[in-house]
């Protein structure tokens, strides 16, 4: 039987806690419990020597569990392990469990003769049980008002918590050991899978290290940040303990997930070396990947704007409270499942979108307000509609365009809740949302979804076999749903406005996202033209895919590098498979965006090396943290600014806190000593900033032996007109510059890119922007190259234009690689230059668009 | 060099430190009451009184025996976080001097560093967490830089650097210990641990040469 030591500042507190715990167990079964608490009976404090003595007193071959209160108790306990015999110290675990709950649970389980690891997990679960209990009861009380007891029956966790909490601790914890088999350990993505799985079951689940006692010992498996920071590495064994109704089921499911190596696909060279472009593009996964053609024609599937709630019959307050609870549970379950699917199929960053939704359905304030409304006699539907409309209204009143678009998240949650309420407790399918509201259209065959706006959930759940394309009436181009749809290759046209107001369900509708054109009930001639264009693009894409892995050289032999923008290891693997010549932009703020604390140097190094490996060793350009504006990072404090796009963005943010940047640079240097890596600093406005960045790069390089990695190219992004104008100075000591056309456009036009009201100005093809690109190509020192990593490079005609202006490296969204390469192969550089010259002479962006269209057709004829 | 530090000098150092802390106990506790649990002065005073008691009743034939006893006494009598931190410092400090025949500035510098490494390992503090390490780190650097100029210069440089480090803690945001619960409110108060650390180094400068 294990021994237990209680370390506390107060002797009285420790004695009382021991009395409370030992009361639970027959005296004959009691484990040995020793106290090291207080300096004497009255003086608060802890004493490492006393802890060491206590550990020696209760030592047994089965080990010793040390429970501590706060502050110096932890340090004294750690110090005590240095005082005792090292062999004894090996079998001692200092637990972070809450003192009283942990002690009670530990005494009870230890008395049964359980092993140390099991007792550790059980002690930790004491906290999880209390947490989940308090969440449940607070909500039960709030939603029931003073009206009745109905809601108590709806909370499945309630009965077990009460029974367990009153009479005995949860001695019935089940546990299973799993091994972490994946190369990089339980990092963010597998951790997210584990957490989403756990959240789907009615159980409190705890993870504890079995093999690595020196690391943080245990954590709540429902917390992504905790699991991801548990630091479970390959080969580590974890004890998974579960308490609750679904304890057995969740453990089985977790063991299975671990057995499947968390569905992680190791970036393997063999996969990358001989890819089949068609299957690598995802074509084998029916229904998951869109055409990638940016164009579609089909029958309109028109989603209702309002959910019809006229058949809803409100009950009394108790019934409404129950319905509300059931609906919230169902929606949370659906969202969590969606989050997991999205994490697996699309990416963690996209999956994080659902966190915003989940945060709403578990917001205690909001739940309290709804409960009060219901108690006051409103129906669940009225209460939720009103309260969520208030929240959406608050978002819409904000100054920041990006924030305003978050109102969409709120409306999406409202839609889900109302659907669930109407279904009266039937759990809506995970794909519920607009796409569920269009069942008839779906049955009739594939078509084009016409909706007010595309939320992320719907975008992730769309069946790409059935939805040929999406047209939204409103919503800017930066909505989460748009991002998800684009990354899936589903054609989407945003902000079509009144042009699609009158469209009937079933009517023929077509659009071309590249030109922004929409045809509602087109005449036969237009329809035929669209079909021809689709056919032509399909063939072009097919040909492009077939030759995607060959280099892109113009007819007159000028080689243009076509790399891909990537945000994950998976991205990198799929980009290589469709022909990317490396990555011209690794977005580190997205790569580590799921983390709540800054990743360590080693974590970053490993991730960079994994991306390089997935890219088959082709060069990757790592952009340092590009945070600020519309891109927050949870572990970096950022100022609240009135005008964040003109504030502390990108490199600027680190002048006050360079450490996080230096860590990253150190990781980049480490990766660069092993593989081809370029480093790139974002949001640079002056040569002084470049010098500052280079100083810190030198500092970071000097931290490891090897110093500045040989052959590592160093560059900056050109996103600000000032940087473009001064490129000769700015790039004097650099190997390359990379133009970010999206930001360069918004800063040149002084029009925020997320603000739909000025979207008519935000056009990368504006001659003003093109003139700056040309200036950069002309004036950059001959020792530095010019790349473009903005959206302009991702359209085949934009790529040709950029080559004509003098750009020799493009980094594009991965699905665009084949066609961009193909377009470059079909022209001669001199023709491209002629196009470039004419574009510079144009007066408007529209003129440039027309020019590119005619130029694109010429080579075919 | 003729300036080897003896066990007697170390005893004088510890007693001087104990006296300083005793005289400043109110001040230290006051600093701690602003951002902590108002016990740093009383805790340190209690611990150092016990140390003086030990020094008065025992003889020590080597620095490591002396500091081992001092460290263990502090561990068992201080009570708060300073117990394991100062305790660890003196234990490691003493170990570093084990078997050293003549203790000059180089040897003392190594011992300081070993002690401070112990503090960092124990408290997991980093620079600018608003802890005693913010006084120790500049002190070690200053000590090493001045070590070639002799022990007196090194100790005096270390004490000055510690005082600067201590003063700089006022503007820092606490990230460790009880003070970290206060978040932004911890800004504007000098850290008590950095304050007592500075006293330790000032006592050293006054007694070890």
Features:
heterodimer, A: 861 residues, Rossmann fold, Glucose Oxidase, domain 1, TIM Barrel, eight-stranded parallel beta barrel, six-stranded mixed sheet, 37 helices, 23 strands, B: mainly alpha, Serine Threonine Protein Phosphatase 5, Tetratricopeptide repeat, 8 helices
What would you say this structure looks like, in words?
- Chain A is an alpha/beta fold.
- Among the domains of chain A are: 1-114, 3-Layer(aba) Sandwich (Rossmann fold), CATH 3.40.50; 278-303 and 434-524, Phosphohistidine domain (Glucose Oxidase, domain 1); 552-860, Phosphoenolpyruvate-binding domains (TIM Barrel, Alpha-Beta Barrel), CATH 3.20.20.60.
- In chain A, 47% of the residues lie in helices and 13% in strands.
- An 8-stranded parallel beta barrel of chain A has the order 16-17-18-19-20-21-22-23, surrounded by 6 helices. In chain A, strands 12-11-10-9-13-14 form a 6-stranded mixed beta sheet.
- In chain A, strand 18 (620-623), helix 28 and strand 19 form a beta-alpha-beta unit.
- In chain A, helix 2 (48-58) packs across helix 3, helix 16 crosses helix 20 and helix 25 runs parallel beside helix 27.
- The longest helix of chain A has 29 residues, at 116-144.
- With 209 residues, chain B is mostly helical.
- In chain B, helix 1 (7-35) packs antiparallel against helix 2, helix 5 (105-123) packs antiparallel against helix 6 (133-146) and helix 7 packs antiparallel against helix 8.
- Chain B starts with 6 loop residues before the first helix and ends with a helix.
- Chain B has a single domain (7-207), classed as Alpha Horseshoe (Serine Threonine Protein Phosphatase 5, Tetratricopeptide repeat).
- The A-B interface holds A 9, 39, 43-50, 71-72, 75-76, 78-79 and B 39, 43, 46, 72, 75-85, 87-88, 122-123, 177-178.
Instruction: Tell me the name of the CATH class of chain B.
Output: Mainly Alpha
* Strand order in space, largest sheet of chain A: 16-17-18-19-20-21-22-23
CATH architecture of chain B: Alpha Horseshoe
- The average pLDDT of chain A is 80
Our estimate of the beta-strand percent of chain A is: 5-15%
- Tally of DSSP helical segments of chain B: 8
The residue ranges of chain B in which pLDDT falls below 50 over 5 or more consecutive positions are none
State mean pLDDT of chain B (0 to 100 scale). Answer: 91
Count of runs of 4 or more consecutive helical residues of chain A: 37
How many extended strands of chain A?
23
For the largest interface, the chains and their residue counts are: A-B, 16 and 21 residues
Strand/helix succession of chain B = HHHHHHHH
The CATH first-level class of the domain at 552-860 in chain A comes to: Alpha Beta
């Amino acid at each position: 039987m294990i021994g237990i030591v209680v370390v506390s500042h107060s002797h009285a507190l420790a004695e009382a806690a021991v009395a409370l715990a030992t009361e639970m167990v027959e005296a004959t079964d009691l484990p040995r419990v020793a106290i090291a608490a207080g300096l004497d009976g009255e003086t608060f404090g802890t004493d490492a020597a006393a802890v060491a003595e206590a550990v020696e007193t209760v030592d047994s071959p089965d080990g010793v569990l040390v429970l501590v209160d706060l502050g110096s108790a932890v340090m004294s306990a750690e110090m005590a392990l240095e005082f005792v015999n090292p062999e004894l110290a090996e079998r001692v675990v200092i637990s972070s469990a809450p003192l009283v709950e942990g002690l009670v649970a530990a005494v009870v389980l230890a008395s049964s003769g359980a092993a140390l690891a099991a007792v550790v997990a059980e002690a930790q679960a004491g906290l999880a049980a209390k947490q989940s209990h308090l969440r449940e009861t607070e909500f039960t009380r709030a939603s029931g008002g003073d009206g009745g007891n109905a809601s108590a029956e709806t909370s499945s966790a309630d009965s077990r918590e009460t029974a367990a909490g009153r009479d005995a601790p949860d001695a019935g914890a089940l546990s299973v050991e799993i091994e972490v088999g994946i190369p990089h350990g339980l990092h963010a993505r597998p951790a997210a899978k584990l957490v989403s799985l756990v959240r789907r079951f009615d159980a409190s689940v705890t993870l504890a290290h079995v093999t690595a006692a020196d690391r943080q010992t245990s954590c709540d498996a429902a917390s992504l940040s905790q699991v991801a920071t548990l630091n479970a590495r390959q080969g580590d064994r974890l004890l998974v303990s579960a308490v609750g109704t679904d304890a057995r089921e969740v453990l089985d499911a977790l063991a299975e997930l671990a057995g499947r190596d968390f569905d992680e696909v190791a970036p393997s060279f063999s996969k990358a070396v001989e890819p089949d472009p068609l299957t690598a593009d995802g074509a084998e996964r029916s229904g998951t990947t869109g055409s990638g053609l940016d164009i579609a024609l089909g029958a309109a599937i028109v989603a209702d704007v309002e959910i019809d709630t006229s058949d809803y019959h409100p009950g009394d307050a108790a019934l409404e409270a129950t319905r509300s609870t059931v609906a919230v549970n169902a929606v949370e379950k659906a969202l969590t499942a969606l989050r997991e699917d999205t994490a697996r199929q699309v990416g963690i960053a996209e999956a994080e979108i659902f966190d915003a939704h989940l945060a709403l359905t578990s917001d205690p304030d909001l739940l309290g307000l709804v409960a009060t409304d219901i108690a006051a006699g409103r129906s669940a539907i009225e209460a939720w509609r009103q309260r969520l409309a208030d929240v959406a209204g608050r978002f819409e009143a904000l100054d920041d365009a990006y924030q305003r678009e978050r109102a969409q998240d709120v409306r999406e949650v409202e839609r889900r809740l109302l659907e669930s309420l109407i279904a009266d407790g039937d759990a809506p399918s995970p794909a519920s949302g607009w796409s569920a509201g269009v069942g008839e259209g779906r049955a009739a065959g594939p078509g084009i979804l016409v909706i007010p706006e595309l939320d992320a959930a719907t975008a992730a759940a769309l069946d790409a076999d059935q939805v040929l394309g999406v047209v939204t009436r409103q919503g800017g181009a930066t909505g989460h749903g748009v991002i998800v749809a684009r990354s899936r290759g589903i054609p989407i046209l945003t902000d079509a406005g009144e042009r699609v107001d009158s469209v009937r369900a079933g009517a023929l509708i077509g659009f071309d996202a590249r030109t922004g054109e929409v045809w509602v009930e087109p005449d036969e001639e237009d329809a035929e033209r669209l079909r021809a264009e689709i056919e032509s693009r399909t063939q072009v894409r097919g040909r492009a895919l077939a030759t995607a892995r060959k280099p892109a050289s113009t007819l007159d032999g000028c080689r243009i590098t076509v790399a891909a923008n990537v945000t994950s290891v998976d991205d990198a693997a799929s980009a290589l498979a469709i022909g990317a010549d490396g990555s011209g932009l690794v977005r580190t703020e997205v790569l580590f965006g799921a983390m709540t604390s800054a990743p360590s140097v080693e974590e970053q190094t490993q991730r960079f090396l994994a991306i390089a490996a997935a890219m088959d060793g082709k060069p990757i350009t790592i952009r340092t943290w590009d945070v600020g504006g519309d891109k927050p990072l949870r572990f970096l404090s950022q100022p609240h600014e009135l005008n964040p796009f003109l504030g502390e963005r990108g490199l600027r943010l680190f002048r006050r806190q360079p450490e996080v940047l230096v860590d990253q640079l150190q990781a980049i240097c480490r990766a660069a000593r092993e593989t081809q890596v370029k480093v790139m600093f974002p949001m640079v406005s002056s040569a002084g900033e470049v010098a500052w960045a280079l100083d810190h790069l030198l500092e970071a390089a000097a931290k490891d032996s090897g110093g500045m990695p040989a052959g590592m190219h160093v560059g900056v992004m050109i996103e600000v007109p000032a940087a473009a104008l001064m490129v000769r100075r700015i790039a004097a000591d650099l190997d390359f510059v990379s133009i970010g056309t999206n930001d360069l456009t918004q800063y040149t036009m002084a029009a925020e890119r997320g603000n739909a009201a000025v979207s008519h100005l935000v056009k990368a093809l504006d001659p003003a922007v093109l003139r700056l690109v040309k200036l950069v190509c002309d004036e950059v020192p001959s020792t530095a190259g010019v790349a473009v990593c903005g959206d302009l490079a991702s359209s085949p005609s934009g790529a040709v234009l950029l080559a004509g202006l003098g750009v020799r490296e493009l980094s594009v969204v991965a699905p665009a690689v084949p066609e961009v390469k193909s377009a470059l192969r079909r022209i001669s550089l001199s023709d491209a230059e002629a196009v470039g010259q004419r574009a510079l002479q144009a007066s408007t962006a529209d003129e440039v668009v027309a020019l590119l269209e005619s130029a694109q057709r010429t080579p075919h004829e | 060099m003729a300036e080897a530090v003896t066990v007697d000098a170390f005893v004088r150092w510890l007693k001087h430190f104990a006296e300083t802390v005793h005289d400043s106990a109110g001040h230290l506790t006051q600093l701690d009451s602003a951002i902590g649990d108002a016990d740093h002065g009383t805790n340190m005073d209690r611990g150092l009184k016990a140390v003086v008691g030990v020094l008065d009743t025992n003889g020590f034939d080597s620095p490591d025996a002396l500091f081992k006893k001092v460290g263990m006494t502090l561990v068992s009598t201080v009570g708060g976080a300073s117990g394991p931190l100062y305790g660890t410092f003196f234990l490691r400090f003493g170990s570093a001097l084990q078997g050293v025949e003549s203790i000059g500035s180089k040897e003392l510098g190594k011992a300081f560093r070993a002690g401070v490494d112990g503090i960092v390992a124990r408290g997991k503090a980093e620079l600018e967490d608003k802890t005693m390490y913010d006084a120790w780190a500049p002190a070690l650097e200053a000590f090493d830089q001045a070590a070639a100029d002799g022990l007196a210069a090194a100790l005096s440089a270390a004490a000055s650097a510690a005082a600067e480090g201590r003063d700089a803690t006022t503007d820092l945001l606490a990230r460790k210990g009880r003070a970290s619960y206060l978040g932004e409110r911890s800004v504007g108060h000098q850290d008590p641990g950095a304050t007592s650390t500075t006293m330790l180094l000032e006592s050293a400068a006054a007694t070890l040469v």
